[in-house]
Design goal:
Oligomer: single chain
Helix content: under 10%
Distance between the termini: 37 Å
Number of helices: 0
Order of helices and strands: EEEEEEEEEE
Number of strands: 10
């Protein structure tokens, strides 16, 4: 299994970013996939997940602002982030939720106030 995240960057408060995660391997196409984030000094938290049937869940801090989706044909999971806030600043990772492979390098998201 392999995970490659991209799409991070520096944005002003209120801006948007669209993250992508390309995944490979025999298990992930059937697994619930999630986006996680980790700010300096904090634990890595799950912020959004999507099942292989398209059912989605979000952590409270991002509800109404973030949208997760997956393109099963391309083996990509997206995270569209709107109305970004400085507290969203973190390294964002994707991985399975119930099954996890080794973590990728993640993608840095920095939101300036």
């Amino acid at each position: 299994e392999q995970l490659v995240e991209s799409g991070g960057g520096l944005v002003h408060s209120g801006g948007s970013l669209n993250l992508s995660c390309a995944f490979s391997g025999p298990i992930f196409p059937f697994a619930t996939m999630g986006w996680y984030r980790q700010a300096p000094g904090n634990q890595r938290d799950l912020v959004a997940s999507v099942t292989n049937r398209g059912e989605k869940n979000y952590a409270e801090p991002v509800k109404g602002r973030f949208a997760i989706s997956r393109d099963s044909a391309k083996s990509i999971v997206y995270l569209l982030m709107n109305d970004l806030k400085p507290e969203d600043t973190a390294v964002y990772f994707c991985n399975g939720v119930n099954y996890r492979a080794s973590w990728g390098q993640g993608t840095q998201v920095t939101v300036s106030s």
